[in-house]
């Protein structure tokens, strides 16, 4: 909920002292995209394409996919949009890509893992994404979900580039990928941290189970330390790293993420104004100090308090 004293954000992500951070939206439909554009999103940091097909019983054709993606891209003509290839499985099952029964679907054949055997489905989707990009004039880049190794990242990048997509990235939402971010960057142009799944897999705590929600708190120092590794790798290679999980929607945590080296933040449309306004109040070195302080704590509560102290507006 936004507070009454919340400043109005002008639609450009920037710290008080002029450090640019792209403030982007997470979307899953044309309606989401329209709302996000109206709320000032600079672009889309995560288009969850599987949301278009949660009730589909068969694979949509290339023409159907092109139309669906174009409708989402249209409000962002000329702006950056990161389209994620189908993240089917676990909490987002798709009937036409259902795996054989698995005891632990979150650890099974989901996300990019589905594409290894269904390369035809991936290639048709990439074709539709490229067509929708051409049709709408959005600056489209694609990324794969649930990547665990640099080899997988390279495999995906090669296929996406063969489909004519120039900027290719992967999500970092598996701890192994965070630990090998430097190698993953050798294969791709950018990465985007999915903090919802990264928390789930780091703490071995199902994101859908309320009883373990405290472990999935995005302020957990262990999660922040993994994010810091990715931020450091991004700085070394001078490539973009963003966050598109729920963590980016919390203004103080957003500042911490900037301090950890993130160059973009993507969130639900309802959070854009408060995150944009929050960043505009703090200096970049405060973000770095807040990150350092939060990293040094032992629990989410103290991480929050330490960050808040470092982020008191100076003026
Ligand atoms: C995430 O895992 O943080 C993420 C952004 O992707 P999703 O929530 O769609 O799994
Ligand atoms: Mg995820």
TrEMBL record:
Q: Where does Mg(2+) bind?
A: 173, 197
Print the keywords alphabetically: Cytoplasm, Kinase, Magnesium, Metal-binding, Phosphotransferase system, Sugar transport, Transferase, Transport
Q: Where in the cell is it found?
A: Cytoplasm
Swiss-Prot/TrEMBL catalytic activity: L-histidyl-[protein] + phosphoenolpyruvate = N(pros)-phospho-L-histidyl-[protein] + pyruvate
Q: Where is the active site?
A: 244
Sites where the protein binds phosphoenolpyruvate: 48, 84, 196-197, 207
Broad class of the protein's primary localization: cytoplasm
Domain PEP-utilising enzyme C-terminal positions: 14-282
Keyword Cytoplasm appears in the UniProt entry: yes
GO MF annotation terms: kinase activity; metal ion binding; phosphoenolpyruvate-protein phosphotransferase activity
* Region forming the signal peptide: none
Q: Which cofactor does it need?
A: Mg(2+)
GO annotation (BP), single? phosphoenolpyruvate-dependent sugar phosphotransferase system
Q: Which GO terms describe its cellular component?
A: cytoplasm
Q: Family assignment?
A: Belongs to the PEP-utilizing enzyme family.
- Provide the protein name: Phosphoenolpyruvate-protein phosphotransferase
């Amino acid at each position: 909920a936004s507070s009454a004293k919340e400043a109005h954000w002008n639609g450009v992500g920037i710290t008080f002292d002029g450090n640019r951070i792209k403030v982007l939206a997470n979307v899953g439909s044309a309606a989401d995209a329209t709302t996000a554009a109206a709320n000032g999103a600079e672009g889309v940091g995560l288009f969850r394409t599987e949301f278009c097909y949660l009730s589909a019983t068969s694979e949509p054709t290339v023409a159907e996919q092109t139309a669906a993606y174009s409708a989402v891209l249209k409000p962002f003509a000329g702006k950056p949009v990161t389209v994620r290839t189908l993240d089917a499985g676990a909490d987002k099952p798709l009937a036409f890509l259902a795996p054989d029964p698995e005891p632990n679907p979150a650890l099974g054949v989901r996300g990019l893992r589905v594409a290894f055997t269904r390369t035809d489905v991936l290639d048709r989707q990439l074709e539709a994404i490229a067509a929708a990009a051409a049709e709408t004039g959005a600056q489209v880049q694609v990324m794969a979900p649930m990547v665990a190794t640099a080899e997988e990242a390279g495999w995906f990048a090669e296929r996406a580039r063969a489909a004519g997509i120039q900027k290719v990235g992967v999500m970092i939402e598996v701890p192994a990928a965070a630990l090998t971010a430097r190698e993953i960057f050798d294969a791709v142009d950018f990465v985007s941290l999915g903090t919802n799944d990264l928390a789930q897999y780091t703490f071995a705590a199902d994101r859908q189970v309320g009883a373990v929600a405290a472990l999935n708190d995005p302020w957990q120092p262990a999660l922040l330390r993994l994010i810091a590794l990715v931020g450091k790798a991004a700085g070394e290679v001078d490539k973009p790293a963003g966050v598109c999980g729920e963590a980016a929607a919390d203004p103080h945590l957003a500042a911490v993420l900037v301090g950890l080296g993130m160059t973009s933040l993507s969130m639900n449309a309802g959070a854009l104004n408060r995150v944009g306004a929050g960043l505009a109040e703090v200096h970049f070195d405060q973000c770095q100090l807040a990150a350092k302080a939060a990293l040094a704590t032992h629990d989410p509560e103290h991480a929050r308090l330490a960050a808040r102290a470092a982020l008191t507006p100076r003026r």
